[in-house]
Amino acid sequence: MDLHRPRRGSRGFRPRKRAETQVAEMFWPSREESRVLGFAGYKVGMTTVAYMDQAGTTTKGQELVGAGTVLEAPPVYVYAVRGYKAHKILGETLASDEAKLKLLGMKKVKKTELNENEIDDVRLLVFTQPNKTLIGKKHPERFELALGGKTAKDKLAFAKTLLGKELRAKDVFKPGEIIDVVAITKGKGWQGTVKRFGTNIQRPKATGKRRHVGTLGQWHPAYVLYTAPQAGQTGYHKRTELNKHILKISENVDEVNPSGGFPHYGFVKNDFVIVKGSVPGPTKRLVKMRVSARDNGPYQELKLTYLSNEPKQ
């Protein structure tokens, strides 16, 4: 028996409980250039892509075929600018369009202005517009988007140019950029230890049971440690995946829509983003994107040579 196997279940993912909200919060890296640092879209499904490899690997210059995830990214509306001082909210400046604010349940617009000398950080407050899609969602999601800039004064001046306007994916990212994605994974309910932690299935004559843990721990201390594999909630957790390559950003939906639509989603009607590989969550779930938190070197655009729109059924 191999006694040097990896442990069952990473402690980095504790506690394995259900996420409190589907609009996942995230850490924002800093950038000196004036730009919006994130966006969001709805997961459509996966498709087949081919691209020219630009990385410094053995396949450099060759055409590679792989999987890509399609995210529908309807424009988000910037309804407020929020100022922070020492990580505390100092105030907000709302947009003047009361019809848009009524969608969020705001009946009165407070006329407030942020003082650039009192704040040390600025964020955009935006909400999604799922009514522009075919997913059937009625209520918009509200969240913050961080801004890049050398000083808070620069961030505030840039934020005011976006207040009360719609923000599109192509205004934030460009093809070939490396991003991080944050989403809530697919929920799987209450599961046992074999599916939840990948523990071994016992032989039939061991204890008369197979899909259970052989031991819950040592004799002393005489209690069960929280690290012992036990049954519980599986899935519906917030997960962050780093360094996902953007293969394409486009508004030409005929390039990506199959003849029968995507399974469990339908047809894409708005701008879409194709990310190399997979992203967490089921279809129709909100996926938040941000600029990469890690230094990935110089920008290199991947040349997309093929995008499948064959029927997925």
Structural topology:
Blueprint: E1 38-52, E2 63-72, E3 76-85, E4 88-94, H1 98-102, E5 121-127, E6 142-146, H2 152-162, E7 166-167, E8 178-184, E9 189-191, H3 193-197, E10 232-234, E11 238-250, E12 272-276, E13 286-291, E14 303-307
Antiparallel strand pairs: 1-2, 1-13, 1-14, 2-12, 3-4, 3-5, 3-7, 5-6, 8-11, 8-13, 9-10, 11-12
How much is the average pLDDT?
Answer: 91
Helix-strand pattern: EEEEHEEHEEEHEEEEE
The rounded distance between the terminal residues' Cα atoms is 45 Å
Radius of gyration: 23 Å
Looking at this structure, what is the CATH superfamily of the largest domain?
Translation factors
**Helical residues, percent:** under 10%
Number of strands: 14
- Main sheet specs: 6 strands, antiparallel, barrel
Broad shape: globular
Oligomer: single chain
Percent of residues in beta strands: 25-35%
Please state how the strands of the largest beta sheet are arranged side by side: 1-2-12-11-8-13
Structural class: mainly beta
According to CATH, what is the class of the largest domain? Answer: Mainly Beta
CATH topology category name of the largest domain: Elongation Factor Tu (Ef-tu), domain 3
What's the helix count? 3
Number of domains: 2
Can you put this structure into words, describing what you see?
- It contains 3 helices and 14 strands.
- With 313 residues, it is mainly beta.
- Strand 3 and strand 4 (88-94) form a beta hairpin.
- The protein is globular.
- The model has no long low-confidence stretch (mean pLDDT 91).
Provide a short characterization of the protein structure.
The protein has 313 residues and is mainly beta. The chain has helices at 98-102, 152-162, 193-197, and strands at 38-52, 63-72, 76-85, 88-94, 121-127, 142-146, 166-167, 178-184, 189-191, 232-234, 238-250, 272-276, 286-291, 303-307.
